Amino acid sequence: DEARRAWDAGDERFGVVDSRLARIPAPERRLGG
Length: 33
Known about the structure:
By secondary structure, the protein is mostly helical. It is built from two helices and no strands. It has helices at 2-9, 27-30.
């Protein structure tokens, strides 16, 4: 689904990043804000 694709794509809107980039999202993004 879209959320799954967004996760796979590392969509920061969903508070995640592409694991291949090994980047860490901002805390508020990890909280879904």
